[in-house]
Design goal:
The chain has 538 residues and is of the alpha/beta class. It folds into two domains: 175 residues, 2-Layer Sandwich (Chitobiase, domain 2), CATH 3.30.379; 318 residues, Alpha-Beta Barrel (TIM Barrel), CATH 3.20.20.80. The protein contains 16 helices and 16 strands. The strands form three sheets. It has an eight-stranded parallel barrel with strand order 7-8-11-12-13-14-15-16, surrounded by seven helices. A six-stranded mixed β-sheet has the order 1-6-4-5-3-2, with helices on both faces. Helix 2 links the parallel strand 2 and strand 3. Helix 2 packs parallel to helix 3, helix 4 runs parallel beside helix 6 and helix 8 packs across helix 9. The longest helix is centred in the N-terminal third of the chain and has 26 residues. The protein binds ligand TNX. The site of ligand TNX has 10 residues, from loops.
Length: 538
C-alpha cells in the first residue's frame, strides 16, 4: 500500500518534473557553472521535521536570475507563488518575477505543479541545481512547501561565488505531510488586550512553522473584545478595561475581518471563542440581566476565575447568545465556533448541562461546529461537537465515548502561560513548570489512556494572558516553546527526539532575531555562541 502509493507519486513527480524542465528550457538562458560549497539537505534545521529528506549534495543558487512560475490557470497557486516572492524579497531583497513571459537573464526557476490528491496537506519539494519543483495537490500543500523552502534560504548571501549575491539552497527531495489536521495556538486577548498588529505578527510566525489554527479567546470576566452590533455595550462597557486596570480594547468587526483575512492568506483558520456560561463578568456588567441575580456587577481587573455565570434558565439569555453567535459566525469563514464552557464553578451542574445542550443547536443553526473546553463532554452532545482537553482526562474520555473528536491542550504540557521554571519572569505554575524540553517531550497520541490517534483532531497550545500585558511578554512565554508544538502537531512521532530537535531549535535564533522576537533564551537549548540574546524591549 505504502510502496505503491510512493511508486505512483514518484511517477507523477518525474512526469511533472519533465514538463517543468520543458517549460524551463524555453524560459531561461544557460546557467553559469558555479562551484558551490558542499551542502547537505538532510542537515537543514527544518521545523517541523519533514517526513522524508533525501539529499543530493549540490546547490540551487537563489539569485537575481531566478523566476517563479505558479503553473498555468491555477489562481490559488498564483497567490501562493506571490507569497513566496514577497517572502524572498523580504528576506533577501531579490525581486523575482512571478509568471513573467520569458524574462531576460533568467537561468533558474521555481515551479509550482498541481498533482493528484493524496491528502494530508502534503507536498513534495524537488531541489536540483537548475530548478525547484513544488508538487502538491492543493494550494495549502504548496503553501507548506513554501514554508519549507523559506527555512532553507541561508540568513546571509554568499558574495564570493559570483559578482552578485547568491543564496545557495541544498539540493535533494523532501516528501512531507501532516500528522494532524488541526495544529493550533490560542491567544487570550480578554485578560489583556492585544491589538491587531500583534495578532498578525503571531500569525506570521505560526505560518512559518505550519500551524494552521488560531483560536482567539475573545471574552472573559475581565473583558469583551469583539464588537457585536446588536449589543453595543459589550465592548463600550465590557471592553473598557483589563487585568491590572489598563484601558483594555476590542476589535471592531472590520478589524476582526482583517485578522480573519490575514490568517486565511496564510492558510490559518480563526476559531472565535465566546466563553460561557462562566467567565462572563464583562458581559453581565454590560447587560446585567444576563446573570439573573438582580445585581449589576462591577468591572473586574483581577485574576480569579469561576465566580461569574449567566442565568441559564432564562430565554432572553439565549436570544442574546443567538445574536452573538450569528454576528460572529457571519464574520468567520472557518468551520468552528468555541463556546468556552470551562470553570463554571458557580453554575449548578444541571444548569450547566442544560446550557450547553441549548447552545449546541444555536451554533449548528449558524453553520458552525461547536468546540468547548473538556467540561462540555458532560452534556448530552452528538459526535459533531469537539472537546478541547485541558484538565480532566475523564471528560476527554467521555467525549470520545460520545464519538466526539478531541483537541489536546493538556495544561501540564501544552500551556504556554506556564512558567519555564520557578525563577523565570511571567506566567503561572498551577499546572506545572514547563521548561522548553518538557514542552516538547510528550506524544499526543499516547498522552491519555483511551484517546487514540483517530480520536484526536489535533493539538493546540493556549497562551493565557493574566501575567502578560505587552507583546514582548507574550513572546517571552510563546518562544521558544511554540515551534515545538508545531512539530508535535505535524510530524510522525517516530521521527522525533529532543536531542535532534534542540539543535534545530537553536538554529532558529537568526529567524527570531530577524522577526524581533523577544524569546526566553533557555539554557537547555544550545543557542549559537556568537549570537546575542534578545534585549528586553524599551
Ligand atoms: C485555566 S484553561 C483557565 C483559564 C486561565 C488559565 C490560566 C481554561 C479552560 N481555563 O481561565 O486563564 O487556567 O492558566
Amino acid at each position: 500500500m505504502q510502496n505503491s502509493k510512493w511508486g505512483s507519486a514518484l511517477i507523477r513527480v518525474l512526469f511533472a518534473g519533465w514538463i517543468g524542465v520543458g517549460i524551463w528550457a524555453c524560459a531561461v538562458d544557460r546557467a553559469p557553472e558555479i562551484d558551490y560549497p558542499e551542502t547537505d539537505l538532510s542537515a537543514a534545521p527544518l521545523i517541523p521535521k519533514p517526513l522524508s529528506i533525501v539529499p543530493t549534495h549540490d546547490a540551487f543558487g537563489l539569485d537575481r536570475h531566478v523566476a517563479i512560475y505558479s503553473g498555468a490557470a491555477d489562481g490559488d497557486f498564483a497567490e501562493v507563488a506571490g507569497f513566496l516572492a514577497s517572502q524572498i524579497e523580504a528576506g533577501t531583497g531579490l525581486r523575482l518575477p512571478v509568471d513573467g513571459e520569458n524574462p531576460d537573464g533568467i537561468h533558474r526557476a521555481i515551479y509550482f505543479n498541481r498533482t493528484a490528491s493524496d491528502g494530508g496537506a502534503g507536498y513534495q519539494l524537488y531541489i536540483t541545481r537548475d530548478s525547484v519543483l513544488i508538487n502538491s495537490p492543493d494550494a495549502e500543500g504548496a503553501f507548506h512547501a513554501v514554508q519549507t523552502l523559506r527555512q532553507l534560504i541561508p540568513q546571509s548571501a554568499n558574495d564570493t561565488l559570483a559578482d552578485y549575491p547568491i543564496w545557495p539552497l541544498p539540493t535533494g527531495k523532501i516528501t512531507d505531510q501532516t500528522e494532524f489536521a488541526y495544529r493550533g495556538a490560542m491567544l487570550d486577548v480578554a485578560r489583556h488586550f492585544f491589538p491587531v498588529a500583534d495578532v498578525k505578527k503571531y500569525l506570521d510566525i505560526m505560518a512559518y512553522y505550519k500551524l494552521n489554527v488560531l483560536h482567539l479567546h475573545l471574552t472573559d470576566d475581565q473583558g469583551w473584545r469583539i464588537e457585536i452590533k446588536s449589543w453595543p455595550k459589550l465592548t463600550a462597557v465590557g471592553g473598557s478595561t483589563e487585568v491590572g486596570g489598563g484601558p483594555g480594547g476590542f476589535y471592531t468587526q472590520e478589524e476582526y475581518r482583517d485578522i480573519v483575512n490575514y490568517a486565511a492568506e496564510r492558510f490559518i483558520t480563526i476559531v472565535p471563542e465566546v466563553d460561557m456560561p462562566g467567565h462572563t463578568n464583562a458581559a453581565s456588567v454590560s447587560y446585567p440581566f444576563l446573570n439573573g441575580n438582580g445585581k449589576t456587577p462591577e468591572l473586574y481587573t483581577g485574576t480569579r476565575v469561576g465566580f461569574s455565570t449567566f442565568d441559564t434558565r432564562k430565554d432572553t439569555v439565549y436570544a442574546f447568545i443567538d445574536d452573538v453567535v450569528r454576528e460572529i459566525s457571519a464574520l468567520t469563514p472557518g468551520p468552528y465556533f468555541h463556546i468556552g464552557g470551562d470553570e463554571s464553578h458557580v453554575t449548578e451542574k444541571d444548569d450547566y448541562i442544560y446550557f450547553v445542550e441549548r447552545v449546541a443547536p444555536i451554533v449548528r443553526k449558524y453553520g458552525k461546529q461547536m468546540i468547548g473546553w473538556d467540561e462540555i463532554a458532560t452534556a448530552d452532545l452528538d459526535s459533531s461537537s469537539i472537546a478541547q482537553f485541558w484538565a480532566d482526562e475523564e471528560n476527554a474520555r467521555e467525549a470520545v465515548e460520545k464519538g466526539m473528536k478531541v483537541i489536546l491542550s493538556p495544561a501540564r504540557k501544552a500551556y504556554l502561560d506556564m512558567q519555564y521554571d520557578s525563577v523565570s519572569t511571567y506566567g503561572l505554575h498551577w499546572a506545572a513548570y514547563i521548561p522548553v524540553d518538557s514542552a516538547y517531550i510528550w506524544n499526543p497520541q499516547e498522552y491519555a489512556a483511551g484517546i487514540e490517534k483517530d480520536d484526536i483532531l489535533g493539538i493546540e497550545a493556549p497562551l493565557w494572558s493574566e501575567t502578560i500585558a505587552e507583546l514582548a511578554e507574550l513572546e517571552y512565554l510563546a518562544f521558544p516553546r511554540l515551534p515545538g508544538y508545531a512539530e508535535l502537531g505535524w510530524t510522525d512521532p517516530s521521527l522525533l527526539s529532543w536531542e535532534d530537535y534542540k539543535l534545530r531549535l537553536a538554529a532558529q535564533a537568526p529567524y527570531f532575531k530577524k522577526m524581533d522576537i523577544r524569546y526566553y533564551p533557555s539554557a537547555r537549548v544550545p543557542w549559537p555562541e556568537d549570537f546575542p540574546e534578545p534585549e528586553p524591549r524599551d
